[in-house]
Amino acid sequence: MTTLLREVPTSSPIHRLWAGTKIVAVVLVSIVVVAAPSWPAIGVVLGLLLLTAVIGRIPPTAVPRPPWWLWALILLGALINLPIGIDAVFIYLQAVTFGLVLLCVSLTLAWTTSMSDVAPALATLGRPLRIFKIPVDEWAIATALCIRSLPLLIDEMLTLVAARRLRPKAVVNSAADNSIVDLITTTMSVAIRRSAEMGEAISARGGTGLIAAYPKRPQLADLFALTVVIAACVSAVALTIVLR
């Protein structure tokens, strides 16, 4: 899980695409999955994800391994729906699959996109909203900094959990030990410290204006990629309507 929400360090056609193109693709795929909830649509989206993973050279080791209790909860949900009928179980599994597919789509964006490219892309995509006096650059910067902070917080949480496991069992099982409160408090202090360090680093590099600058522009490859994504989305909707 070390590559969770981090860019896979490799060079590929997917990595070289403009970040805005990939954000638009994720939005389109998410809309299709929500608007056309069917197994054919899921199959088309999964095929598109596998193609993206192959072209993007994403190794299988980058995929996080869900804990056993997650599968146990999914199985428990299926057993709860079983008395209602087999159709209820299929609908439940379909909803779970939708959630996993949307999660995989978001992770694919994180694996193939540098976090430094997210803010400029969001600022460019939201440029038409400036007509309504909306602070697009500030929103883009805040979103990019939040996304960039998540991997750091995840690493800190894993470190805290590992440190707790090293504590003596007598201390962990004592009545005075409150692990949840300790983890929440420590995470809050770490988040404040990380945000302060990030603010100092941003100020030293010239302020937040450079974060939302526009160093990249969409190219011909971005147009081709969007065409493929739109074709896949249209195919998913068409299959849903035809096979209904």
Automatic annotation (TrEMBL):
Domain of life: Bacteria
Subcellular location: Membrane
Keyword entries, A-Z: Membrane, Transmembrane, Transmembrane helix
Membrane spanning stretches: 23-56, 68-86, 92-111, 223-243
InterPro entries from the UniProt entry: ABC/ECF_trnsptr_transmembrane
Membrane topology listed for this record: Multi-pass membrane protein
Cellular component per GO, a single term: plasma membrane
Protein name: Energy-coupling factor transporter transmembrane protein EcfT
Species, as recorded: Rhodococcus qingshengii
Taxon lineage: Bacteria, Bacillati, Actinomycetota, Actinomycetes, Mycobacteriales
